[in-house]
Here is the input.
Amino acid sequence: MISGLYVVDHELVTIEATATLESFRRFVVFSTCQSFMPESYLGDPEVFPEREQSPGAIYVEAADKVTLKKVREITFVNAKDVLGIIYSSKSGNTKLKWRQIRRRMGKVTGEASVNALVNLVEAGVLTREWVDDYLRRTGAREGEGRSSDYVSQDSSISQIPDQADASDRALLS
Here is the structure.
């Protein structure tokens, strides 16, 4: 978890990391629709949110995809054999792509805002160590800065159970 992290307002972080499909799915849910996603969809690793509007488009590229339900501006889809996910925040600040490397492992690339960074850590896309390394490389410090730059631990949103299967865990170790 990110606790007491201070960074410059509007600073974008360049992301290049390996992550499971499930962790990136959790990130997209945390960032877009956790409060209104049907409960039965939350724990289903094959259900993904999509959004057509731009900025803010979310697209899931999969071998097999079926539309389930539309709630607000989000369309929930059941996707199998996911090849990639393109995510853009409504503000347009965060633009990330997950591309399959092997089975349910992929590479996440793009730029993320501070808010998205918190969600990426909470979802398991990035580790706290990755953030610490980023802070060392950029000269940002923990515990210093203006109060408007503070990202608190209260941002924790780990309510979706980890659905990573044994093969995902093996790939991460």
The beta strands are 5-6, 13-20, 47-50, 58-71, 74-88, 95-102, 105-112, 150-151. The chain has one domain: 5-172. Helices lie at 21-32, 39-42, 114-123, 128-138, 166-172. DSSP finds five helices and eight strands in the chain.
